[in-house]
Description:
By secondary structure, the chain is mainly alpha-helical.
Amino acid sequence: MLIAEHLNKVQRMRVxxxxxxxxxxxxxxxxxxxxxxxxxINAAMHSLGxxxxxxxFPYNIPVYVVPRKDPVAFNxxxxxxxxxxxxxxxEMEALIPEQxxxxxxxxxxLEQFRDPIVRSSHAVDADILRKMEYAFETCLNAxxxxxxxxxxxx
Length: 154
């Protein structure tokens, strides 16, 4: 995706995310937090030149989809890394520049809860929720600051 599109998604999803209660809506809160964090990191990685900014979307990396002129049609292509879907895994971690280390670590912290919370029904206590909220804010702020530093984005 393009940086502007990532940032637009971050902004729109963030508005919806603030309406969720981390305790009552934990599964949805986490799922949306992960999506926002990945969009912010992707925008920062494009801004830093670590990945390709283009109208191409991850499908099952290294397979991406490229939109055709028909708005509901896509072509499947093998591409070098553009957008990433997760920050875990050696090939992903190797792509992430040093400037995004804090964002990566914070998102990795959140990702450890994906399976127990989103794919199961594991309950979390107030202390874990506070840590998850802090990790989310840390990821977002660290990633967006990389874009601000390079492009004057706030």
